[in-house]
Amino acid sequence: MRSSAVRALWSAAFLTLLSLALALPCLAGEHGKAAEPKRGILLVSFGTSVPEAVAAIDSLKSQAEAAFPGVPVRLAYSSKIIRDKIAGEGIKKSSPAQALSDMAAEGFTEVAVQSLHAIPGHEFHDIIATAKAMEGMPKGMSKISVGLPLLSTPHDIDAAAEAILATLPKRAKGEAVVLMGHGTEHPANAAYAALQLALWKRDQSVFVATVESSPSLEDILPALKRQGARTVHLLPLMSVAGDHARNDMAGDEDDSWASILKSKGFTPKAQLTGLGSRPAVAKLWIAHLQDAVKGLDH
Ligand code: CO
């Protein structure tokens, strides 16, 4: 293209932009009356396909409602696999993006989104990206504040260690506890090792292992043996006692943690109670929600 033609195009584009810019304030004057602020809360759980596990999520939801009377609390499942699976059983759950756009359509202008995940991994970073996208959307929210997962800051790790220990069964000598985390290849997997250290500072008989990453059950078996543990309490380190807890942890299959421990001479005792159903731990998620709501103020 000849340079004079380029110049002509540029100046036409500039004039168009200029006239748009000049027109905007007067459009705003006519139609842009700021919407009345309306606050809401969105809790985002990974989700579960196990009906009995839903109670833990419901309990977190009612605690959020109790902490913020009058503020509507909505729920979304971040896992598409879970959403699709339960949809086949007639249960409809929204994705975080769907829930936020529904809330925008209902006139919510400020939403605190609280992650009910254990660590700030992929699911959490997806929430951040979704929140950012929704915040910038025309007629979207004016403000979205996102609350951190359970095991995020060093302070969280210490608080979670204390809270988890407070909910454990009374144990005699020779009894140990193994918490089953999910595990991920995301760098946030380091939170499990940090929690392990915080637990060991307080109680050397409580272990953390993960289903899908490190530390694995195999990693902690030598230490369990060295301690002379005979009974091993198994608990999910997840908000709900869902599929992983029921099958990979407590199931009858040969490769479940209960079966592996039995084959190594331990007596496994599985507790199918998610962290969301343990009040001392649930409180920490609600404290993070409180921070997220505060985040809407500035
Ligand atoms: Co999984």
What are the salient characteristics of this protein?
single chain, about 300 residues, alpha/beta, Rossmann fold, 4-stranded parallel sheet, 8 strands, about 50% helix, binds cobalt (II) ion
Characterization of this structure:
- This protein has helices at 3-31, 54-67, 80-87, 96-105, 122-135, 154-167, 190-202, 217-226, 243-249, 257-263, 279-295; strands at 39-45, 73-77, 110-115, 143-147, 175-181, 206-210, 231-236, 267-270.
- By secondary structure, the chain is an alpha/beta fold.
- It has 2 domains: 39-149 and 280-295, Rossmann fold; 154-273, Rossmann fold (3-Layer(aba) Sandwich).
- The protein has a 4-stranded parallel β-sheet, with helices on both faces.
- The chain starts with a helix and ends with a helix.
- Mean pLDDT is 91; it is low at 17-30.
- The site of cobalt (II) ion (CO) has 2 residues, from loops.
Summarize, please.
48% of the residues lie in helices and 15% in strands.
Please specify the SSE layout and strand pairing.
Elements lengths: L2 H29 L7 E7 L8 H14 L5 E5 L2 H8 L8 H10 L4 E6 L6 H14 L7 E5 L6 H14 L7 E7 L8 H13 L3 E5 L6 H10 L4 E6 L6 H7 L7 H7 L3 E4 L8 H17 L3
Parallel strand pairs: 1-2, 1-3, 3-4, 5-6, 5-7, 7-8
Helix pairs in contact: 2-11, 4-5, 6-7, 6-11
Q: Estimate the mean pLDDT confidence.
A: 91
Q: Which percent range fits the helix content?
A: 40-55%
> What is the number of helical segments per DSSP (H or I, 4+ residues)?
11
CATH level 3 topology of the largest domain: Rossmann fold
Shape: elongated
Bound small-molecule species? cobalt (II) ion
Q: Quick one: biggest sheet?
A: 4 strands, parallel
CATH architect. name of the largest domain: 3-Layer(aba) Sandwich
Report, as a whole number of angstroms, the end-to-end distance: 50 Å
Overall domain count: 2
CATH class of the largest domain: Alpha Beta
Q: Can you write the helix and strand succession as a string?
A: HEHEHHEHEHEHEHEHHEH
Structural class of the helices, strands and pairings?
A: alpha/beta
Q: Count the E strands.
A: 8
Multimeric organization: single chain
Q: Radius of gyration in whole Å, from Cα? A: 24 Å
